Request: fold
Amino acid sequence: MNIIITYKEISDFIEHKFKIRPTFSSVNKNILNVSYKPVAFIPSIDIKFVIDEISDDSVSISYDCSAAAALMIAGVVTYLNENIPNGVDVNTTDRKVKIYPQQIEQVEKALEYVALSDITFDENSINIALLLI
Reply:
């Protein structure tokens, strides 16, 4: 089973919820660039996400960005700490995110029927492969 989420869908959702519109582009099947330009005279904020590993119980993601962007991310993570769902561990020092899908309440029920197989990026979308169990 495959789930395809287009970058346009994600940008539209973020714009609707937060009034900003990031752009997405894939570098290869494991690396996604996310960019946001706040205003005309401020440089864009670019973050590169890398799918490091997918196992039966977790997804490991690392990110690379400028020092200024890393400080902003650390501040946002600290501010939102209580709102980050159980099952998502963000290590801003090492710039790593570890996701444990079975511990996330919103996906826990679905994982009774499917298992995460792969996450890839292509020209227009994020592709999530699931196996029926």
